[in-house]
Amino acid sequence: MSHCHTLIQNLRQNGYRITPQREMIIESLAHQPGHQTAEQVFDQVKTRTRSVNIATIYRTLDLLVSQGLATRTSLCEGEVVYATRQHGPHIHLVCRQCGCLINADSGLMVGVSDQLQALYGFDADLQHISITGLCTACQHNSPQGG
Length: 146
Fold this sequence. Notes:
- This protein is α+β, with helices and mostly antiparallel strands.
- Helices cover 41% and strands 18% of the residues.
- It has helices at 3-13, 20-30, 38-45, 54-66, 110-120, 136-141, and strands at residues 70-74, 80-84, 90-95, 101-104, 128-133.
- The chain is globular, with a radius of gyration of 18 Å.
- The protein starts with a helix and ends in a 5-residue tail after the last helix.
């Protein structure tokens, strides 16, 4: 079974109706190898149908996130991107000065997750996160040096 059909089946099993628009939105998100903004999903879906609007895109993406089937992450300058869980756990290091994006090893968060659970009883969702800071180049170019 394809990834998008797995997502659709999961929603159906949880009592959600699968409209043609929802199906196209899920297919668009599931068939992309990386992240997409809601606007990118909208652009792809509207090539297939006129009976969709940006609000439907956001509602469907929010549903996928709330059901744990997709992730939502803020990147540079507040850009919000979505990816399915199949995209896998990962960390984005986002330079707040130049906007460069560095992918970091998600294994770095294992200790953090364990500590949050031990200290606060909090089960953190660290599947897809971004951390803002300064890249090496911007640290060296900064008058304060970081």
